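Here's what a typical entry looks like (Site-specific integrase):
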Amino acid sequence: MSWREAVVKFITESETKSPKDNISLFRLLDPYFGHLKLHEINGKHIEQLIDTRQKQGVKNSTINKSLEKIRALFNLANKKWRVKCDPPYIKLLSTPRMRVRWITHNEASNLLKHLQEHTRVMAHFTLETGLREFNVTHLRWDQVDLAKGVVYIEGDDVLKDGKPYLVVLTDSAKEIIRSQIGKHHTFVFTYRGKPVKKAGTDSWRNGLEKAGITNFRWHDLRHTWASWHVQNGTPLEVLQELGGWKDIKSVQKYAHFNVDTLRGYAKGLGIVSGIETKKATMVSGF
């Protein structure tokens, strides 16, 4: 069986909800394996893929997605399709720990005070909704339903690591949107009457400096929103839906913030009562 035949079979039989992701990934791998039979692919081909992608500046975590897909394909070929081939050994690359930088409510309030108006409303809206930067700067009026109190993120507005979802607006988020009515016929957030292309500009950086906040990116507003949710007791599965993440793994990095909930489960463990703990007696000669 050739690599391309295996890819077609893999995509056809795949039960993933995002077949386009599979197609895009295998299209990227075709220059490396498209001319080969499965039994011809070996460790050197995998090393060449890794080396080339790293030289292109691709992150290890992104390369790992390709490696995982290759392993999955060979696993099916061997166990389900009964194709005679010797799968190459594939070891995933090391990746840095996920960065989670967040600020407290007091720090956030102080930051908002030091931001220019057009940046402040977008930052405040992000803290209320957890929306990604692109979905804030490119938010259109046809995505907003103030009567229902929601924003729709779907179609081309869904980023590669997300999925279509509804953003439930808080009262503050609705007030922010109402304050933008009449400023532009298409986009919600503007600067001097024109759509905003990027939020993390000099205005943002100057505000951070004045507020005394360091090592904080615009995307960290989303981390802050998620961290506040978990600290407030929001279950990770609910947070996943609120934030539009595809995979529960994406929100597990916030699990350690929910100390009270974890403590509650820990206390729920039945402890045998009535047993006294005695100090160990030192025995001479040992």
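Strands lie at 144-145, 150-153, 165-168, 190-191, 194-195.

More examples are in the samples folder.
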